[in-house]
C-alpha cells in the first residue's frame, strides 16, 4: 500500500472518530464551565468560527495552557524585540492560558482559543489567520493540525519539545498516524537529549531533531520589581518565617493543610502563602483554611497578609514568581499526585529553596539537574515533604546553599532562546 494512501486512510479513520465524538466537546465545555465560568465563553473560537474578515498573523505560537505560555514567554519576547511590528498570534486551549497571554502582552499579540483537531476547523483557522510559520510548544501533537499545516505550505516546528516516557506510551495507539504527522515538521527543537531520542522513537526523522535546551531557563527576572514586592510583603508581616505551597491540585490540599498544622506547632508565627494551580480552587482553599481555624487573607481582598494571618491565598494569576521570592522555602505542587510536577526553575531562579513530591515525570531532566546541584529536595510522600520543609525552615545555612546552587544552575542553563531563534530563523517572515 502506497504511503499517501495509508496516510489518507489513517487520517480518515482518526477524523471520523473525532467527528463522532464532537458533541462530547460541548458537554466537556459545559462541565468545565460549572467549575470555571470562562469555559462558557468564546465557544465559536473552539470550532474556528470568527467574526470579520481574515487577518494576517505571520508568526503563530500555540501554547496549550498557562505553564506552556510561561515557557514560551522568553521566545515570544525575543521575537517582539527583533521586530516590534511583527504580528504574532498566540493560541491556547485553557482560560488560564488565555489570561496569561493577556497579562504578559496585552494587545501586542493576537489571541484566540485553538480550534479542536477537526480537519475542517483547522483548515478554517489557518485560512482566517494565514500564518507563515507555526511554533508549537512542548507536547501538543495533534495530527490534523500538523497535516493541515503541511497541506497549506506552512512550516511547522515543535519548540521546547518535551516528551516523557509516560507520554510516549500514551501515544502508542496513534503511533502509525503520529509518526507520519511528525515527518511533516521542519524541526523538533528538543529540551534535552532524552526528549530528542523519544521524539525519534515516536517517528520524527533523526535529521529533523535538534537539542536547543529548555526555554524555561531563560526566565526573565525583574530584580527591582521583586525587591519592591518583597519589601512591601515584609513590611506587613515582619520577620515571620514563610513557606509557599505553589501550583497545588485538589488531592494535595489536605496534605498542605496537615503540613501547615505540623509546622505551626513548632513555629506558631509561620505564614503559609498558598497559590492553587487553578482559579476554581481559590475559594475552596480559603474555606479549608477557615475550617482549620486559621485567619486567612487573600490577594484580591486584602492585597497583603498581616501579623495575625496564618494563611495568605494568592487568588490571582501571574504573580507566582514574586511570591516565591517572598518565601523562605517552597513546595511545588503537582508532585504529590500523578500530575507530573510543575516548573521547578521558577523558585530556583529567584533563590528559594525548593521541596517537591515524587511525581516529576514532566520535569525529569530539570529535577535531576536540580537534585545533582543540591538545589532540590524530593519527598516520597506528604510526610517526607513535611520533614524536608521542617528541616529547611530550621536551617538557614542549608537554605542559602540551595538558593545559590539553584540560581547558578539557572544562569548556566540560559541560551535556549537564542538557539531556538537560530533553528527557526530561515522561516521567520
TrEMBL record:
InterPro entries: Glyco_trans_1, Glycos_transf_N, Glycos_transf_N_sf, Kdotransferase
Keyword check for Methyltransferase: no
Keyword Disulfide bond attached: no
GO terms under biological process: lipid A biosynthetic process; lipopolysaccharide core region biosynthetic process
Active site: 68
This protein's UniProt keywords: Cell inner membrane, Cell membrane, Lipopolysaccharide biosynthesis, Membrane, Signal-anchor, Transferase, Transmembrane, Transmembrane helix
The protein, known as: 3-deoxy-D-manno-octulosonic acid transferase
Lineage: Bacteria, Pseudomonadati, Pseudomonadota, Gammaproteobacteria, Lysobacterales
